[in-house]
Amino acid sequence: MDPILADVVLGKGENHVVEMKWDELTSRVQMKMSDGFSLQFPGQPTEYHKGKLDPIELTTATRSGNKKITLIYNLETYRIDPQQFAHKCQVGVAASTAVNPAVNRKTGSEVMIQGNQVAFATRLLLEEYKIPRKYIKGTENAVKKKK
Questions:
Q1: What is the pTM of this model?
Q2: CB of 73 within 8 A of CB of 102?
Q3: Average pLDDT estimate for 116-127
Q4: What residues contact residue 95 under an 8 Å CB cut-off, 6+ apart?
Q5: Per residue in 30-52, pLDDT tens?
Q6: Contacts of 111 (CB under 8 A, 6+ apart)
Q7: Residue 114 counted as domain residue
Q8: Which domain holds residue 126?
Q9: Cβ atoms of residues 69 and 112 within 8 Å
Q10: Residue 122's closest CA among 112, 134, 109, 136?
Q11: Closest Cα partner for 111 from 56, 53, 52, 65?
Q12: Does residue 88 sit in the same domain as residue 46?
């Protein structure tokens, strides 16, 4: 094994290791690497970012008078305009919407929709914006249909 590669891959007490299988070597190198992701949008160059890709978060909250609201975060990461998304939700479910700076977060904004509209927002993200389901967090908060 190359001395530089051995310095990167081997841990304490493994100085005697001279050979290593290829799959074990690649898995150890990947463990040492930091997280990163790339986003590619039509007609634009690929963007590379450090860290983990934050999913779109759908949460429900209760306001005064036992009123429910739906809060949606991290739309900007996926190049979704919060104002446009709020308008589509407002027209689609006939509910009031608002876009505010996200509270207790470094960047971004939150979309607030009157009522529990998690099911509609999820369907909009999946069908119109083509966001894969694994990047949407909080779909379990949707109202269950009565039988």
A1: 0.78
A2: yes
A3: 93
A4: 89, 113, 114, 115, 117
A5: 888 898 999 888 888 999 999 88
A6: 71, 72, 75, 82, 85, 86, 89, 97, 98, 99
A7: yes
A8: 56-141
A9: yes
A10: 136
A11: 56
A12: no
User: In whole angstroms, what is the distance from residue 5 CA to residue 35 CA?
Assistant: 20
Distance between CA atoms of residues 115 and 95, nearest Å: 7
Same domain, 130 and 94: yes
The CATH number linked to 109 is 3.30.780.10
Tell me how many domains the chain contains: 2
**DSSP-derived 3-state class of residue 116:** coil
| Same-domain pairing of 64 and 125 | yes
Give the integer Cα–Cα distance in Å for 94 and 147.
24
Q: Do residue 118 and residue 64 come from a single domain? A: yes
Task: Judge whether 16 lies within some domain.
Answer: yes
